Structure formats: C-alpha cells, structure tokens
Amino acid sequence: MKSTHFLILFLIILSGCNxxxxxxxxxxxxxxxxxxxxxxxxxxxxxxxxDAELIISQDGSLTLKYTGEVLQLTxxxxxxxxxxxxxxxxxxxxxxxxxxxxxxxxxxxSVLNQGxxxxxxxxTRPENIKLQFWVPEMSVNNEPLLNIFDxxxxxxxPVSGTSSKYSLNDIVLKPIxxxxxxxxxxxxxxxxxxxxxxxxxxxxxxxxxYIEGYIGQNxxxxxxxxxxxxxxxxxxxxxxxxxxxxxxxxxxxSFGFPTKALINQFVVETNTGSVNFQSPLxxxxxxxxxxxxxEAGQSKTTNYVFDKSNSNVKDIxxxxxxxxxxxxxxxxxxxxxxxxxxxxxxxxxxxxxxxxEFPVKGTVKQYPASKIxxxxxxxxxxxxxxxxxxxxxxxxxxAADMQLYLMDKNGQVFDSVFALPQTLIMAAKTNALxxxxxxxxxxxxxxxxxxxxxSWSTAKSIKISAWFNSPSNNLPIxxxxxxDIQIQVxxxxxxxx
Length: 497
Known about the structure:
By secondary structure, the protein is mainly beta. Residues 1-28 have low confidence and may be disordered.
C-alpha cells in the first residue's frame, strides 16, 4: 500500500502541485524556490488506484476496497411462467389435472399473477341450458372459483362458444398432491342434469406472486465475474506486502428456502499464473441464511470473511495479484429435506457481492517511483556559488532515498545531483502499532559544484527518482487519513559580484 502511496506522492510533487513562492530561511543572499507543497495521504491513496474505493474508518485508518459486480438470482431465474395455449379437455363432469413439475417445485399454496383463463363448450340439446364451472382448489376472496353461463338455444345445433377471458390475478391455488380438479354441471330449465358434448379449459399463462410448498434440489447458474486489482500495478517482485487483506462474500437472500453456494472457480491471477483460493470455509460449504414462511418479504444477510487466519488470502494477495476470478452457482435445498414447506415470492432474489479489502498496513522495500517536471534553471547562471535545499516534514511512517537527474531540452539526462541516492525523506515516528505519532523534519543543503553551475542552469526538466523503504525493523506500518508530507525544494546561493 505504501509503495503505491508514495508513487502518487512524487507524481504530485514533481508535477509542481500547488507550487508557490516560498521564503527559504537561510543566510543565503539569493533563493529560487521550485516546490512548496502539502500532500495528504488520503489524496495519494485515492490517486494510487482507479478501481478501488478509499474507506476512512473512525480511527482514521485507511482501507482500499475493491467490489465486484452484484451477482443476482431472481424468481424469474428459478420459476418461469407456465405457458398455456393448449386447451385441456373436460371429458366428464370431473377431470383431475396434475400440475406440471417446474424445477422440482410441488405447490401447496400459491397466489397467481397475471394470465387469463377461458371456458369453451359445445352441446346438441335444443333448449336453453345453464353451465356451472368451478375449480375447488382455486378461490377468489375465500370463495371457490365459480363461473355460471346461461346459454340460450337459437335454433341451430350444435350450440358452441367460448367465454370471455377471466383474470387469474390474485387467485389462490391450493393443489392437493400437486393436482387440481376441473368440474362442471350442465342443467336445463327443469333442473335436469346432463353432460355436454365437449368442454375445454384453457389459459394463456400461469405465473405466481407467491409459491409455498416443496422446493427440490436444483442448480442455478448465477454468473462468472472478476475483480481487477490495480494496487500492484508498477510493482515487481516482493517489493510491497499487505499485512491483513480480506475477502468478503455477502449474500442477501429473500428466497424462503436453504441455498448453498457452489464455487466452481475462485482463483487469483498473477503475473506468473493462477493461484487457487483456499479456506476451510470453502471446504465446509457456504450456505445462506433464509427467511421462514412467517418472514416472507424479509431478507436475510450472510457474510463470509476470508482473512489470514482462515485462508491463504495473505499469501496469494502478495504475489502480484492482477485479477480475482470467481464463478458461483446456487444449489437449492442442499440437504434434500423432503417434508418441507418453503416459499418464493414474486420479488424474491439472492444477491451476492464479493469485496476485497487492502488495509493500508504493510511493508515496502526499495520501491521505485519517478517523475519528470519542467523547470527554468536559467537564474542559476547568476550564482557565484550555491546549493540545493530540500526540507521535508513527514507525518507518514516511511522513508525514501532520492536521486535528482538534470535533463536538457531534448529530455536527455546530462547530470545527477548525487553519485548515489540519498535518504531525503525521513520516516515519521510511530507507536508500537505502526501508527505515526510525530512528524520528522529533515533539512539538507546539497552544495552545487562551482564547475557545474553553468551547465545546471541549462536544465529544462528534472527527473526525481525515489526508492521507498519501511523502517529497519520491517514491521508493518499503518497509513492514516491525517498523515501528510510538507515539502520545500529550492536553490540558494551567492550572486556574482
């Protein structure tokens, strides 16, 4: 975390962020400021990654959070409307119909949604008749579904027709052993009963607002997804480590039946290959909480947190992670409970979210960062002698070695300030937890050789390279929202007489 943090620090510094003229307190007769800025840790972290969200906790600690797309399974995915269109013949005054088995669901009680039904009839009696049609297992407002038709004789036989469409919306269906009964009674004006020549029950579709009953074992394909990790972009080898990364899988479930996640794939892709995610939690199986029948309409949340104590997450996320790939299915009724009453509502769904958190706590070794910025060094030609003054006030618990390269108008390096990089940013003082407690101030004047003043004054840009290192004890440090660095950079010296 800190390595990426400091990369952005120097991108901001070297681009001249908020540069203002500054009074350099010195006995020098002349001063030329280059940089005077304040860089906050939060800004550095936000700019270190484009894919992550920066979370600031109440204690000021910082965490980078990557979130995958929301994976969702809805009622439509597991129970599609039953298509109609084919009339069901009523060959007798009582016909029993077995409901189609959709996804191993046996309905005990349901509330229908949308759709329409119709009754068709034909008879050869030369008289007015009355036809009563009902389904004992269907009710409206607690009354059995009943339709009565007065069919007049108009001198032409056979007499046939089809009723208007009747809505199925809000009809309560209570099958018995997954069966319903179609019944009719035909009577003449004398009250005599008879069978009609032909009768048909038809519907355009049957859909459900609510289903209660046995829901068997089915596998539902949710989705394959991936999370891009740009935290390690530009980092090579083991130059940076995160002490306590976490992966959290959150399921919000309003289906009224037990569900188990089937993890088909859960891997971390690195620069060198793929590493399987491992955890006893995965071995045991991930099951999701679900509402009971009395809690229909509610949602239950289940969180699975994978950290360094129960998985290999720390090891695999410190191997140059580039992408996390996961493919999840859902298994209903994983224990195949037979005598069960579960439910599905029209709005039922399960959503699964995978998040990856990188607390800004870890170590960094010789992590390189550099940036080129334009300068006008021509005023140096008026110096008789001078030096480069760098003053840093650092509240971030990490130090950096620096090298400054002078470049000509063609962008070619023609000199450097040091023979070897020097430590110019000192780590802030920390407590036992690795949290900074006091800023460290460092001021250093680097003499400019008289023989180089003329050539340095021709510089059109400066490239500053930095290599960052955790404290020598190599214990993880924590970057907080209040942490920042104040930097002043300028030339000082004596003018020519």
